[in-house]
């Protein structure tokens, strides 16, 4: 079966689950005219992409209040994150200042920046700080606060206060979900507060997301697509998102994985 037919089937499954909250494999197989085994493969794929949650005999919505475990997110869509990171790094000139927030995609960006010269990096991500502190050509400033043991994120009012003392050329922001109306969504209120501070104090805001974040609906609202300068992802976004990008003059950069050297840049 062609890739377009498989993708259409995946979209149908996602649409039905979003409408009902849960769908059984048998019901999906009847609606789509395929075998239950085919639906199980589809559900497994969508679950690995972080788009649905597997249940015995079916699939349901991904939680809006709890993210996928950090250890799983580290390896989830890793080639795509690496490709996105390379694309972002190509847009950051030497001798720049930048914020980098919490997230596995932003950590990939930090790794991609290690070949740069004379960067000034402010971060509330302990993993980013540890990685970049080895670079003698960089100055790394870490915002002080409570360190989360599960992912190295640093949050709290003191983080927001310290981040607010800087004005950087670029803000590199990750997010857990982008709704169809352009809302930027995440799971943790304290993490969102820090990210908002970064957005307010960045001359340009680069949002870095894999395709799995489109249509995902965590609980906490960070902001809107109209507030960013550029979106970096690995596949063309859904039509509604593309329309919003066009309306607000936001640059779209698409990196195709696993061809990490490929740079498809689209201005819309």
UniProtKB/TrEMBL annotation:
Segments forming domain HTH deoR-type: 6-61
The protein's name in its UniProt record: DeoR family transcriptional regulator
Pfam family, one: HTH_DeoR
Superkingdom of the organism of origin: Bacteria
Keywords: DNA-binding, Repressor, Transcription, Transcription regulation
Family annotation (InterPro entries): Carb_Metab_HTH_regulators (IPR050313), DeoR-like_C (IPR014036), DeoR_HTH (IPR001034), NagB/RpiA_transferase-like (IPR037171), Tscrpt_reg_HTH_DeoR_CS (IPR018356), WH-like_DNA-bd_sf (IPR036388), WH_DNA-bd_sf (IPR036390)
Species this protein is from: Pseudoroseomonas ludipueritiae
Coiled-coil ranges (or none): none
Keyword Transferase: no
């Amino acid at each position: 079966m062609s890739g377009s037919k498989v993708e259409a089937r995946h979209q149908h499954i996602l649409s039905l689950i979003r409408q009902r909250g849960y769908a059984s494999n048998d019901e999906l197989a009847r609606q789509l005219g395929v075998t239950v085994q085919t639906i199980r493969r589809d559900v497994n794929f969508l679950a690995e992409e972080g788009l649905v949650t597997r249940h015995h005999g079916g699939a349901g919505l991904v939680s809006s209040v709890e993210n996928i475990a950090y250890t799983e997110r580290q390896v989830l869509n890793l080639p795509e994150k690496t490709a996105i990171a390379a694309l972002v790094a190509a847009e950051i000139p030497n001798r720049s200042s930048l914020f980098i927030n919490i997230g596995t995609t932003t950590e990939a960006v930090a790794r991609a920046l290690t070949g740069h010269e004379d960067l000034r990096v402010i971060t509330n991500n302990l993993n980013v700080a540890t990685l970049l502190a080895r670079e003698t050509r960089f100055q790394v400033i870490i915002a002080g606060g409570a360190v989360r043991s599960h992912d190295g994120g640093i949050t709290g009012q003191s983080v927001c206060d310290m981040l607010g003392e800087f004005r950087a050329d670029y803000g590199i922001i990750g997010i857990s979900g982008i709704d169809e109306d352009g809302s930027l969504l995440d799971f943790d209120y304290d993490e969102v507060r820090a990210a908002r501070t970064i957005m307010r104090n960045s001359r340009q805001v680069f949002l870095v997301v894999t395709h799995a974040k489109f249509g995902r609906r965590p609980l906490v609202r960070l902001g809107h697509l109209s507030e960013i300068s550029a979106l970096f992802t690995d596949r063309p976004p859904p039509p509604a998102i593309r329309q919003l990008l066009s309306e607000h003059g936001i640059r779209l950069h698409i990196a195709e994985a696993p061809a990490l050297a490929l740079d498809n840049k689209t201005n819309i």
